[in-house]
Design brief:
disordered N terminus, mainly alpha, single chain
Length: about 180
């Protein structure tokens, strides 16, 4: 299955374009298409092959991040954490850096019950992330600090409510503060 999807595209494109941007992009696109079609094995092979052929390629960070996401989708959480750490080590300024921090925080909170470690990672995400995921990260930090009984809980919860007074979790955070 893994070979079938990209077999027609990858060898032909690679033979004609080799290490050009077209050849690199085609291999990542094979992985993206396979992933969209739910063909994990084919996607994993394409992204892994990209990493082997183009370890310093223009899409190397994207290919590795997508491998990490596949580990999460497959519920291989320990492998996902290793992959996310590998991403942060290889690409400390990578396009997906903030996302790797948020995913790691979520894995620590939800699957390891490492609430203090997760709270620190949520805080890091809040410092480097952007967009709609900020509220979820702020909520994650509040929840984790509450779980460990941190003295920073009340101030962090108040900060969440200040930023997101009508937020998705605002009522829950208010309830936690008034307990």
């Amino acid at each position: 299955e893994g070979r079938a999807l990209g077999q027609e595209i990858d060898p032909e494109v690679h033979a004609r374009h080799g290490s050009t941007p077209t050849g690199e992009n085609a291999l990542v696109e094979v992985g993206r298409i396979a992933s969209l079609l739910g063909r994990e094995k084919a996607a994993r092979q394409a992204f892994s092959r990209y990493g082997q052929r183009y370890p310093r390629g223009m899409l190397a960070d994207d290919a590795l991040f997508r491998l990490c996401a596949l580990d999460i989708e497959a519920r291989s959480f320990q492998e996902a954490q290793r992959c996310l750490a590998r991403y942060r080590n290889r690409f400390p300024a990578g396009v997906h850096l903030a996302d790797t921090v948020l995913l790691e925080a979520t894995l620590r909170r939800d699957f390891q019950q490492d609430y203090l470690g997760a709270a620190k990672l949520f805080a890091r995400y809040l410092a480097i992330g952007s967009g709609e995921k900020l509220e979820e990260a702020a909520y994650g930090q509040v929840m984790c600090l509450g779980r460990v009984g941190s003295p920073d809980f009340a101030a962090t919860a108040a900060r969440y409510l200040e930023r997101y007074p009508q937020g998705k979790h605002a009522d829950e955070v208010r309830n936690w503060l008034h307990r």
